[in-house]
Amino acid sequence: MKNRRHVSLLLTILLIVTLVASGCSPKGGSTTVKELSGAGATFPYPLYSKMFDTYASATGVRVNYNSIGSGGGIKALTDKTVDFGASDAFLTDQEEAAMGAPVLHIPTCIGAVVLSYNLDVTSALKLDGTVLAEIFLGKVVKWNDPAISALNPGVSLPDLAITVVHRSDGSGTTSIFTSYLAAVSPTWKSTVGAGKSVSWPTGIGGKGNDGVAGMISQTKGSIGYIELIYAVQSSMPFASLKNASGTFVTPSLASSAAAAAVSLPDDLRVMIVNSPGKDAYPISAFTWILVYKEQNYVGRTLAQVQALKKLLTWMLADGQSINEGLSYARLPAAAIQKAMVLVDSMTYGGSAIP
Amino acid sequence: MAALPSPSDRREAARERVFTAASLVAAVALVATIALFLVQLLVTSRTSWATFGLPFLWHSEWNPVTEKFGALPMIVGTLVTGFGALLISTPFALGIAIFLADYAGKKVAEPIKYLIGLLGGLPSVIFGLWGLFVLVPIVSKFEVWFGKLVGSEALVASGTTGVGLLAAILLLAIMILPFSASLILEALLVVPTELKEGALALGATKWDTIQNVELPYVRKSTVGALVLSLGRALGETMAVTMVIGNGMKMPTTLFDPANTLASAIANQFLEATSPIYVGSLIQLALILFVIAIIINVLARVILRRGIQQ
User: Fold this and answer.
1) Strand partners for A164
2) Residue B241: CB partners within 8 Å, gap ≥ 6?
3) Which one, A80, A218, B51, B117, has the greatest CB density within 10 A?
4) What is the dihedral of CA B134, B139, B140, B143, to 10 degrees?
């Protein structure tokens, strides 16, 4: 009797293992037009899930979006297991070459990265790009450094060490922030550079926005970068930044949208950091949905491709009204116009999608 | 009396065969999984091997922008935190186990055992949160105090964060304590009563008995318990990430932010896109795998020597 119990137990375990293993095997390509799938950036995830929810109730087409990170999204699109990818950084030439086919970058919203800090000061801290780069390079190490005092007249800054907090995980946020530093500081550009993950000259790393925010609230004298939405939601203080036209700008939906009010390239693969606009907040950036220009691959049906095109068009039109309620800036009209042209340029078997 | 096998005997034999086959499959699956792990790690990290070769092990630059990678800071971080935690937790683990086995009465021992089990079952993210919000501020105060003690201006100035190697070592020491303590306790509990009573009958004190009878008897299981705990410390990811500061540079003091192999992988893998970056991260996993194997083999060698003497 005991033996039999053992046997059945073992067989059950083996059965479970087999089931789990078979469940992990790749899905067949039998997606219907009732369902589209995407994967990628975590930053726009709250926006996308709300948009796709609204879209599903309006049209009956469900969109599965996995916020596995921009890197994962790019990989999924390269492997052609999703209809679209999503990324906070546009593809480098090398990455685009690895995709094997031209990829379109469709922006969906604008995000801003803010400098949050833990300091007992009476008014909001003011910084400019040069000083910010010096702080993150580990050259300005005290809060009462003359360079910081000069930007904050009338504010008494303490004799306290500056603790730099950065992201420890690769992220689009880091890419946006380091692109800004590289744009304003030649030293930063040559010694550190820009990317989703960089070799930080100084500071401690926190995982995710919450990790960085936790470290900041924990450490007196710290400064770190987080997404605007996160700072607003967790009511953390953030600094005003001097933009390219010399004005101190407080990060907000309006000021980050203003950063996109510049002449944009037709492919919209552009960093809008350090934007010249007078009211532009300088650390702003698009987040993109990535799709192949030629949509006839791995046996995709025309109906499926049409559904994808309809979804993207909707996200650029009606979908935009969802942005601000969730603290994402809307795309300016000029960007929408160019994005629509990109969506229309998608092809199926070489000809335009009807 | 060689009668024909009865139907029930045959059923019994068939059952036996099925059971043997099923066990064999399970055992082979385990070996195959480990072998496949190794093969997969080797294959997916080949771009990194091809580019950096062996110096990957002792280069200390980790720069995703220029795509120059070296694993030394993470190897050092992993070994320092793992062995540091083991060093701190072992005396406590031994003390707890001996106390529970030989000194505490049942009424005291049972609740403590229950608490140890509870501590061992806590998800590591909870340890991480506790570490970040409770342990780190204490370490930070200690750091400033220590900096003043040795007169180090730099330490006092940078010592305001508290995150770093020391915080990770202390947190890991607490996390592995339940494992080593309960494993050593189990070993102590099976020391034959005759041996203990024999020693006591010869006039040995309780301490003599523990020292000369019980501890030598459980040496093998104790080393085994410590190796298992070390394994957990080396592979721990979430809690370490939250308190170690995630610095990718070579740490120079115990207060510096550092990183471990596991924590670096967990942090960077999701957004790594270029093949060389991904390959380097997988190579970190390979190194962790090899470190785990080396430690297990070493433990066995030490054990065998100990027994021969």
Assistant:
1) A223
2) A168, A207, A211, B128, B263, B266, B267
3) A218
4) 170
d(CA A159, CA B213) in angstroms, rounded, equals 61
Domain B56-308 coded CATH 1.10.3720.10: yes
At residue B276, does pLDDT exceed 60?
A: yes
Helix (H) or strand (E) holding B305, with range, is helix B275-308
Looking at the predicted complex, does its ipTM rise above 0.90? no
Whole-angstrom distance, CA of residue B19 vs CA of residue A354: 62
B137-161 pLDDT, tens digit per residue, is: 999 888 888 888 887 766 655 556 8
Any idea how long chain A is? 354
Instruction: State how beta strands A35-40 and A126-128 pair.
Output: unpaired
Token pair 């033996």 is found at A3
Which A-chain residues 130-189 have CB contacts (< 8 A) with chain B?
A: 141, 161, 163, 168-172
Residues 6 or more apart whose CB falls under 8 angstroms from that of A199 comprise A192, B61, B62, B63, B64, B65, B66, B248, B249
Please tell me which of the candidates B15, B29, B259 has its beta carbon nearest to residue A7: B15
pLDDT, block means (10 residues), chain A with 354 residues: 54 54 42 82 89 94 90 88 92 84 94 93 91 95 93 91 92 91 95 92 90 90 92 90 94 92 89 90 94 91 93 95 90 93 93 87
Q: How many CA atoms lie within 13 A of B113 on its CB side?
A: 18
pTM above 0.90, yes or no: no
Q: Which residues of A touch B158 (CB under 8 A)?
A: 161, 163
Q: Which amino acid is at A229?
A: I
Query: Which chain B residues contact residue A219 at CB under 8 A?
Result: 160-162
Q: Given this model, what pLDDT does residue A24 score?
A: 42
> Is the confidence at residue B198, as pLDDT, over 50?
yes
For chain B, the domains span 1-44, 56-308
